[in-house]
Structures are given as structure tokens and as C-alpha cells.
Amino acid sequence: MLFARKLRGKPGVQAGHLASGLPGWELPGWGLPGWELPAENPAFPPLPIALSSVLIDKDSSIDRTVMALRSLAEDRIFGERLPSSRELTAQLGVGPVTVRRAVGQLVAEGVLSTRPGAGTFVARPTARPDADTAWQQVALGASPVDPAGLDLAFRLRSMDGLSLTGGYLDAGLRSDSRVAAALGRAARRPGALEAPPMMGLQELRHWFATELGVDADDVLITSGGQSALSATMRAILPSGSPVLFETPTYPGALAVARSAGLVPVPVPVDDKGIRVEFLERAFQTTSARLLYMQPTFANPGGTVLDDSRRREVIDAATGAGAFIIEDDWAARWLSHGQVPPPPLIRDDPHGHVITLSSLTKATAPSLRVGAIAARGPVLQRVANLRLVDEHFMARPLQEACVDLLSTSSWRTQVRVVAVTLRERASTLAVALTRHLPEARFTVPNGGISIWLELPGHHDELSLSERAASMGVAVLPGQIFKVGESDRSHLRLAFASIESRDIDRAVMLLSRAVRTGRHQE
Ligand SMILES: Cc1ncc(COP(=O)(O)O)c(C=O)c1O
Fold first, then answer.
1. CB-CB contact of 205 with 197 (8 Å)
2. Which one of 232, 327, 343, 447 has the minimum C-beta count within 10 Å?
3. Which domains does the chain have, with CATH numbers?
4. pLDDT digits (tens, 9 = 90+) for 239-268
5. Which atom of ligand 1 is closest in space to residue 226's alpha carbon?
């Protein structure tokens, strides 16, 4: 039934690939080259069809079984299961060995995959030869969406070999079993699948409020940090507006701004954080109404805004009548031991600072829960945009976080992460001193990365490609920068590489750097 329906009308699928084996289906010419089934002919009702074992020899029966299975795969979505071998042999009218060999060939081609005991599945979507999507290029026009290097970061994460790119903790450092148990309990709670309050579960708002030092009424729960960032920027500024960025900065924030049609304007940083004299000038010259910054353990540099500058930054924004997005991302929970400075929002009662926080870095990438803390009408503006975008944040995830965060094991987990990240950061520093002594960097006291400056000029993207080809993935500095820069940088992340692999990773990186130097 299935096969007749699926194969009919497919270019290149010949009637000879199908044989009825059913009374009344002895159609003349079946099995002969050139016999195409008519595209949508009601004269061919859906019927079980088998390959003619009479008309075809053994090799071509495998070829034709391959063709029939390929066609089935094309009509299924990625991951969908094919009929069982027994059904296939019955319906195609071929022996089990033929089916097995045909499946084997398609597994080798990457079209199908098999899981012992579970069956045969579509391994990847196959190209449909008859699909012509060229029209979309005209309809879509120029793309407003700019992933700003996020795509590269995600692609490199799945590369074979060693990786200094991962910004999320590796499974060994997470407590996935606790998260899974909390998720299980959350899903079983009465009303777990009902819609939660629009601003988020009250207990979770309270928890974030306590961590950030704000009032629970000033907290909105979001699906992780990225969505908090996107909603906040888009809610505040219309397309075409300038937005000030520390440079270097987090590429995900640049991606949000550029994709919303905002114009990022760079403001330099030094080892004490954003340079206030340039910040004031940038507010004056651009009339920007928004600054995006990470005062605590910035990604990529690990920088902490100096105490002496905190007041000046808030004053600069106050003077300009502007907002500050304080991306506190994981600052509360990725310190390497020292108590992190309080969020900037605590120093600002007047609603200039909007603080974003996220649990994904300290728990698991897929526990996508974060928060926005803000005072004044801006919070309602952002909440309304979240309502428009997403309605609300999935309740079971929120319930699971309330469960997870109320146990003492959460604090233990934060301590374990602190000790491990500190150890990895210092192992990385030792390896850099050994293999790349000419490079400059500061060992951070928190966060997940070292911002490495290389002497001389390097094409950062080519260098990261070369390093990847030599077995270590690193992110090129350029995706973290706003505007031009006359220095060469790489971001080396240690959130997901184990200490024992770090020295080798840096050794491979040093080779890539030196090879490049000879070529440039
Ligand atoms: C500085 C910063 N902010 C926000 C995010 C967003 O993280 P998530 O959406 O996983 O919470 C990231 C992720 O890398 C980040 O580095």
C-alpha cells in the first residue's frame, strides 16, 4: 500500500521497480525499461507492491531494492523508522538477504542508519531531485539575520578532535543525573503542564531576586540568556538605532543587535573593564540609548569591571538618559573561588540597569532558564514582547529549577565547578607559557575563557581553520570584536575540555600558529 503511494509520480521510478504479485496487477510492460508510472493516476490505487523477482536478476534486485528504499527514505523525515525487514521482504517481494544488502548500501551512503533491536531509520534528509527552491532566494531578499559567528561556534563544537571552543560545561562537570531527577519530579507534579504565570513561577522569581539583590516583582523568567538578550534589545530600541558595546564582546549579543537592525558601536576595554572616558564620548557622539556590557567575568576576556568605574558607568548612562544591559550571564556561579562583585543593578535604583542572568552555564545547556531583572516600565515592555514571541516559558523547566536550586547539592555543585574551572584555567595558562610564550593573556578569576593576544598580524579566521585541521578547535577573535582591530586574538575556552587534554590542545595550536607565520 505504502510503496505504490510513495513511489507513484516520482521521476525516475519505473514501473519495473514495482511488481504487484497481486491478481489484476499483471500490467503489460512492468519490469521493462522506460515504463514510468503516471504521476497521479487514479487508475493506480494504493496497493501493496513487490519487486518482481521474476523479471530481475539478483544484482539488479539489490539495485532496485536500494532504489525503492531510497525513495521511502526521501518521503520520510530525518529519524523516521522504515518498515521492519520482514515487512520489507514481504512488500518488495525480495529475500531477506537482498533487503539486508540494500539497507547496508544505504547505511554506507549515510541515507539510513540501523539500531540493533530498534530498526532502520532515515539517517539524513536526502536531496529531492525534483525540488526547485530557487524562487525563495528572490522572495527572501537580503537577509536581516546575522548570526555574527554563533554559527561558527556551534559548528566547531561538533568537530572531531580537541576543542577549546565550548562555552558550556562538559557532561563530566555537570550533575546531569540531579537535573534529570528534578525534571522527572517536575513533570509529575499536579498541574505541571498547565501554563505558568506570565512573569514566571513566583518561587523562581524569588530565587533570582535573592541571588541578584532585587525585588521579586522586578524579575521576569526567560528561556535562558540568549532569549532574554533578544527580547530586551528589541523591546527597547527600534531598528536603525545605535547600541554601544564593549569590545571584545559576546558574539550572541552582536547577533541579536545586528539581526534586529541595530548598529553596534564599539567602546574599548582595558583590564579594569570598559573605558569610561570613551563611553561618555560614545554616548555623546551617537546619542545611543543603550549600552550592552558584562561587568563580571566577561566573555571572552574574563574581565571584571573595577570598583572605581562602577559609579562612573552608571553616571554616564544616567547623563545620557540611556539603559545598560548588564549581562550577568553566569557571573554568580562561574567564579573560580572569589566572591563575585554584586550586580551593577544593586547600585542603580532608577532603572537604568537591566540585569540578565542564566542557569544554562552552571547547570546544563538544555536547562534553558534565565531571568531579566529591571525596575520601571521597561520590564512590562520586555514582558509584553516575550508574550508576543513565546507566550510564556515552559512550566516543567521552571518547576525543575525550583526543585534543583532548593537543595544543598546546588551549592556543592557551584563549588565543584569553581575548583575545576580554576584548575583548568591555570593548566591552560601553564600550557600557553610553555608552547606559546610570545602570546599575551590574563588568567581570569571567573568565567570560561582566556582571551589570547598573538604578536604580529594573523588572519584569525584562517588560523582557527588551520588549527581545526591540525586537531584543535579555537574561535577566531574577530567574531568577538566590534569594528576593526589592529591586534590578533583567539578565544580559548576551558568550560568543556578536561585538564588532561589542555596541554596537547595548546601544543597543536602552537603548531598552527607557527605554520601560519611561515605562510604569511
Ligand atoms: C555572555 C553570554 N551571555 C549570554 C549567553 C547565552 O547563554 P544561554 O542562552 O545559554 O543562557 C552566553 C552564552 O554563551 C554568553 O556567553
1. no
2. 343
3. 2-122 (1.10.10.10), 150-171+411-519 (3.90.1150.10), 192-407 (3.40.640.10)
4. 999 999 999 999 999 999 999 999 999 999
5. 9
